[in-house]
Amino acid sequence: MDISVVIPLYNEAESLPELESWIARVMEANGFSYEIIFVDDGSTDRSWDVIRSLAARNPAVRALSFRRNYGKSPALNEGFRRAKGDVVITMDADLQDSPDEIPGLYRMITAEGYDLVSGWKQKRYDPLSKTIPTKLFNATARRVSGIRNLHDFNCGLKAYRNKVVKSIEVYGDMHRYIPYLAKNAGYTRIGEKVVRHQARKYGKTKFGLDRFVNGYLDLMTLWFTSRFGRKPMHFFGLLGSLMFLVGLIAVMAVGFGKLWTMHHGGSYTLVTSSPYFYLALTTMILGTQLFLTGFIGELIVRNSSRRNDYEIETEITRPADEE
Ligand code: UDP
Ligand code: MG
Questions:
Q1: What does the pLDDT read at residue 125?
Q2: What local confidence, expressed as pLDDT, does residue 95 receive?
C-alpha cells in the first residue's frame, strides 16, 4: 500500500464527509493505493455515525474510536500503530489542511529521501492571538531541538516514512514535537514543505492558550529525556556537585574570615549573623539533594525494561548465529 492517511478527530462531524471525499478524489487522480484511518478521540457529537457511513461506502476507510477523549497525541499514536502504507500522512480533520498536498509530500518521502516532511503554514488563517505566540514557540523549539530548518513544528499535516512512525511513541501532548521525537529516534532527514492553510470551516478549535504553557513544559521534558534519560546522574550529579562545592567554599570563607579577624584581635560576631552563612548552607543542602536525585534517577533507569531499547538500523548475521 502506498499511503496511510491518519486523521485524529474530536467532534468534527460536519467536516468529515467533505474531507473523506476530497482525499479519495486526490488518491484516485494520482493512482495511489491508500487507506484512511480515522481515530475518533471520544467525540460526543455525531462523528462516529458519520465515519460508519463513510466506511460503508469506501472500503479504504479504517476507523477506531476511544471510549473517552484522550487527546490528539494518543489518537495519532493509535493511528500510527495501525498504519500499513509505505508513507504515512497525518492531517487534521477540520479541513484546515488540504489533501491536495498529499502527492507532493509523498514524492518528497519516496523520491527525495526524507524520513519526515513537515508542513509549513507560511500564510496562516488563524487569529493573531495564536499566530504570534506560535512564532515564539517555534523559535524556542528550533533552538532546543537543534532542528534548525523547521518553521512550524506543530503543523498537523506531515508525512513520514513508515518505519519512522513505528519507532516513535507519541503520548501526552507530545504531538507538538514529533520532529524532535523522530530526530531522537535517529531519523535526521527532516524536511519542510510550504502548504496551503485554510480558516476553520466548521466547529471550533480544541486547544486554548494553555497550549503554549504546556508546550514549553513538554519541550523541557523532551530536552531532558533525550539528553539524560538514560544517564540522569550526568545531569543531577554535575549540577549537585557544583552547587555543593560553591556552598562549601562559601561556608569556609565565612568560617576562616571569622578566625582571621579573631586572630588579629578585631571585633567579631557569630557566623550565624552573616547572611552569607545561610546562603552557603542552603546551597550545600540543595546540592546534596540534586546529587541524591541523580542516584534515584539511576535506580529508576536500572529497573526500566527499556534501558537497552535501541533502534537497530542494519546488522550482518550468519546462519550459524541462529542456534
Ligand atoms: N483533536 C483530537 N483530540 C483532541 C483535540 C483535538 O483528536 O483532544 C483533533 C481535532 O479534531 C483536529 C486536530 O486534532 O482534527 C487539530 O485540532 P484543532 O483544529 O482544534 O487545533 P488547531 O488547528 O486550533 O491547532
Ligand atoms: Mg485546526
A1: 84
A2: 95
Instruction: Compute the distance between CA of residue 272 and CA of residue 262 in angstroms, rounded to an integer.
Output: 16
**Range 178-212 burial, b when 16+ CB lie within 10 A, else e:** bbbbbbbbebeebbbbebebeeeeebeebeeeebb
User: Residues 147, 190: contact at Cβ < 8 Å?
Assistant: yes
Go through 88-124 and write b for each residue having 16 or more CB atoms within 10 A of its CB, e for each that does not.
Answer: bbbbbbbbbbbbebbeebbbbbeeeebbbbbbbbeeb
Q: Which of 137, 162, 138 is nearest to 149 (CA)?
A: 138
d(CA 12, CA 102): 21
CA distances (Å), origin 170, targets 35, 54, 77, 116, 263: 21, 27, 5, 15, 65
Of the segments 206-215, 244-253, 262-271, 306-315, which one has the largest average pLDDT value? 244-253
Pocket test for ligand 1, best of 50, 80, 94 (most atoms within 8 A of CB): 94
**Amino acid type, 229:** G
Q: How far is the CA of 170 from the centre of ligand 1 (A)?
A: 15
Grade residue 208 by pLDDT with cuts at 50, 70 and 90: confident
Is 38 a pocket residue for ligand 1 (Cβ < 6 Å)?
no
- pLDDT higher than 90, residue 284: yes
Whether 71 is in the pocket of ligand 1, judged by its Cβ within 6 Å, is yes
Q: pLDDT tens digits, residue range 22-65?
A: 999 999 999 999 999 999 999 999 999 999 999 999 999 999 99
Domain coordinates of the chain in residue numbers? 3-228, 233-302
In the predicted structure, residue 323 carries a pLDDT above the cut 70: no
Give how far Cα 10 sits from Cα of 43, 98, 156, 277, Å: 5, 18, 14, 57
Cell readout for 101 is: 498536498
**Can you give the pLDDT at residue 126?**
82
Q: Which CATH architecture has domain 3-228?
A: Alpha-Beta Complex (3.90)
